[in-house]
Amino acid sequence: MRNIIITIILLFSIIICPKVQASPHFRAEITGFPVITENGVMANVNLTYMQMGFSRLYVMATDSFIVNNDSPNVKIPITNLYLLCDGEQFQISNQGWQRFYLDTFDITGSSQKNVNLKLENIGELPSGTYTALLRFLDKTGITLDYECELLFTFVIEDKHSIISSSGDPVIILSEDDIFNKQVFVRNKNDVRLDLTSNTKWKLWLSTSTMDDENCEYYFQLKNVSGKVEAYEQNITQLLSNRRYFLASGEPTLDGIEAGNKIPANITIEYSFKNTDSDNYIKEGIRQNPFTYILERE
Question: Which H or E run includes 5?
């Protein structure tokens, strides 16, 4: 009789105070690749868990931020991350367990549940690999409570853009200039380039499409602003089929908050010089379509 009472007490203690342990019977796995859009990230998650009673599934983050591993100062609040289950949305935090699913009573053993992780309101992000460690809990209510971990991770690829507000450089040789064999003419329109990049960047000028005329072309950077660290400060002669360094700088995206975009602006002046002392140059427009290359530094 005494042994029966002790056994009942032990069973009662297990039911009232279940222990938590990691188990191969509880797993969380991301299926497929996260889908990245302009404003968010979506990932599919498959949960395999023990069905031993009224299984209740919970989720919690281990940290308050999703961190860019390449630039640890770039962080996304974990509260921007949600778990979607059966048409309902649950905000994830590191302040406590969030229950998102209650299964019907069953003791068949293993069961599965598909859910989604949704990261929203992030806007444009600096490039890099972002990670957040999540914990899942299966409270069976009968025997043990099981835990597992999931590393939520996604990659933001390099993104660069160049916008020119003035088109190609135009150099006009007037009637007065054609009799000057040492003529030196500057462009009529300085070329302004507006640069955006989510990485450290470097800007090059390519002359692969430059016409090989009997003259000399030059460029000079007249103004730089924004996220520019270094730039070419000398008047530089341009030769065909060459690549010339213009400038380099920091990412134009500092984080996810509003106002984090600081574009880089570069203004270039082109000039034209006659080097043939035996010939006059035909009057008219000199226009060369130079190519600009923006890439990761």
Answer: helix 2-16
